[in-house]
Amino acid sequence: MTQTLIWTVVALIVIGVYLSWTAGRLDRLHSRIDAARAALDAQLLRRASVTQELATSGVLDPAASIVLYEAAHAARQAEEDQREVAESELSQALRAVFGEPEQMDLVRQAPGGEEAAGELAQAVRRVPMARRFHNDAVRAARALRRHRTVRWLRLAGHAPFPLAFEMDDEPPVALADRPA
Known about the structure:
transmembrane
């Protein structure tokens, strides 16, 4: 009788430790998602800001300046539910303007153009990495939240179901790490 009670208490302690560990792991994943989303937002904002600065610098021709400025402004002002579309449109505008390496060469030759081109290239390259980190954290949290134990015992609490950030973030040829 006493031995059965001891084994029951041990089993309950082991189950309690496992559930606590799982809930803690889920909480850490949600924190990681929040941090990755903040980093992604910062990189998207930086890309839009650098694009707007370049568009208003007078280095580009007027048509390219207008296209880039409007796309960057729309990306900065987009509501949360339209953010992915606006950021994808900024990526498309960057590809349209800097699709040919010659356009970037013209920017580099202008006064202050080398620095502007470097900042834009760096900002454009960091967005896919930040998005990948965010989406990896979302994927890990979703996988854990799909487990029966997590669902049945509601270990996720009231945390919203994590959503991936899907956008077109392909860099222009002239700003890619390795031009084609």
